[in-house]
């Protein structure tokens, strides 16, 4: 590598998102080089575009909670529980496969309401009862999964009207519907974070929760909204999964929690809170999908893939933590009375 | 180890924190049996020097040598092994344990004792107190002791773990005159024993007589150094502040200024009791007290960060809801916290955002935020408070202490509060910025704001306040007109 273009490149690559874009291109090129006849096909592109939105939406949920320095480990539990709410409405209340579009919308609304309620539950535990987010959502995730099992007895719910397939498998103007859903949600979140008072306060709270309290930020309501948003995003992801699987079950998408956390961290979201951009998360989603598809084509086993995800998460954290350490302030002097 | 080797020698030591140079190329030396006064105002770098000695912090540049050996790295453990003991102002004792247990704790720890042996603990404590020449009930819980005895226990603990250098942070501020005399006697005994002592204080006149040398720090640099006989209270003050004249007091309060804030019977168990006072529009009210007097808890209670059990706070005739910072802020109370770095600032966020965070609600346009208007307002306040920032989008941690404090002030002023509570407004701020912050306080009062300044910096209170309340053990014991107060008189009342 020559040193000549270093200044401009150096400045550009100082941005975590730019570094990530470079990594994405490298992963893409690598996979294209290793399996050119399968990876570089229109069919693969389409198949990827249908695959990633479900976990990408979950990664958005992780992103918004992580911006506050928290996390939501209950997203997969919420997703499945909400999908089951929707599926039970469609199969038990509605006239089965003949149910009209009205039933479908009603079941979607019920699922979103379920997601909001689950998020509210998390938010109350974290904002008002002061539980650490990682433990609160680890526990509540099991509760939501348990509810899903209780509703169904643990078996898959099937036999939906054909209209269910549209959200996960349909196309609109040549674009996969789930991709459009993810695009709208990502753009929406990006807008909320950069253009609204709520978004600004989320980032400020994440940067220093104590200072936010001293600056008279309404911390409790802020956290409540964050976890409700996370729960609703998880509900949407659950509906997409249900549509693609044409069924709903309490234990779908078990590997998605780790994947969503990995994407958020890879996308440059600071797990201590205060920094993160949606564009980074989108780039991380694409990188992971390229990697995942490529490994699939190279016939790497599913277990090896989970191993790779875990190793990658730790590697990215090690690299990023070194950067964050350098940027973080020194521990303040222990002075003054603390009563 | 040579006999004449200095116990500690620092050469060219420099330490910087987020935008602040705390120590700048400092040389410092102390020999066995020597007592040195380390003088300096708040923010002069004294506490940073102590932290380096204690091994809690490591300098960016420079060498620290113990017994003539340059240290590659120093940790609290190596500092303790070298016999360096720091006695902080709050003594860091275990209040629920007995005198003997507190004294023997460090020694037992150093020996790696695995089991508690009551008789051995008492023996260590007895021997140690004999060395100091004090008699004390060894089984009394430390929390029941008066301040002066707590200090002796802390000294005893240092000696029991074979301290050869004892650093004492503000050793005399909490003592009566007789207790100070007793302390000086003990220090003389220790010195004869070969123990070195560093007094760290901004009020050193009392300890000058037992000290060999004086080192004065200002803005992180050594500005004066020499034999103690060459200094008196006056010259010390001049070196510490860099100016001869004390700042003039505040402009007189307009007669008939209306009562703005009324505090009645405010109480919180273990913090403050039955606090009553009023604050007029345009008045600057000082609240002072020693560490643990309840002054910070009271300040926080006014802003809802601490929930009092009884009493009320009335602003403009309307009750301010207690225990809720949000509603206190809505009612018109602002609070600038004591510890800027952890409580006041969002260090990694931009200067603009640090100001704007308080004004988000006022710039909402439906679901949107009027980013332009918000930024323009923040820039306006930065300019009005003369914050020297080359780039308002830069992280706030890149600013100096004085400018950081103005950023926090700007955040609150943008909200147009009626009453502003400033807790330690110039802690960690250089002398020049300090005077400017005092000018800002005077300016705010002139505009009709009620300002409450919480501080233990007596010259600061005298320079800014119309009235000073003195807190002792959670109660307001005195209400002094600023014009009638003197530094000596205040110090005496604080320790009473």
Question: What does it look like?
Answer:
- Chain A: Keywords: Cell inner membrane, Cell membrane, Membrane, Transmembrane, Transmembrane helix, Transport.
- Chain A: One of its GO terms (cellular component) is plasma membrane.
- Chain A: Its main location: membrane.
- The complex is a heterodimer of chains A (339) and B (496).
- With 339 residues, chain A is an all-alpha fold.
- Chain A has one domain (45-320): ABC transporter involved in vitamin B12 uptake, BtuC, CATH 1.10.3470.
- Chain A contains 16 helices and two strands.
- Chain A has helices at residues 6-13, 16-34, 36-39, 42-51, 53-67, 75-93, 101-128, 133-152, 165-169, 177-195, 197-207, 209-214, 219-245, 256-266, 278-297, 302-327, and strands at residues 171-172, 175-176.
- A two-stranded antiparallel ribbon of chain A has the order 1-2.
- In chain A, strand 1 (171-172) and strand 2 (175-176) form a beta hairpin.
- In chain A, helix 2 (16-34) packs parallel to helix 15.
- Chain A is globular.
- In chain B, helix 3 (99-111) packs across helix 4, helix 3 packs parallel to helix 5 (147-160) and helix 4 packs across helix 5 (147-160).
- Chain B is globular, with a radius of gyration of 24 Å.
- Helices cover 33% and strands 25% of the residues of chain B.
- Chain B has a six-stranded mixed sheet, with helices on both faces. A six-stranded mixed sheet of chain B has the order 16-19-20-13-21-22, sandwiched between helices.
- The mean pLDDT of chain B is 85.
- Chain B has two domains: 8-241, Rossmann fold (3-Layer(aba) Sandwich), CATH 3.40.50; 259-495, P-loop containing nucleotide triphosphate hydrolases (Rossmann fold, 3-Layer(aba) Sandwich).
- Chain B is α/β, with parallel strands linked by helices.
- Chain B contains 16 helices and 22 strands.
- Chain B has helices at 46-53, 76-81, 99-111, 118-132, 147-160, 177-192, 233-241, 295-302, 325-331, 340-344, 351-356, 371-384, 401-413, 431-446, 458-464, 487-495, and strands at residues 8-17, 20-30, 35-39, 61-66, 69-70, 84-87, 165-169, 196-201, 213-218, 221-227, 259-268, 272-280, 284-289, 310-315, 318-319, 333-336, 364-365, 368-369, 419-423, 450-454, 467-472, 475-481.
- The interface between A and B is large, with 32 and 48 residues.
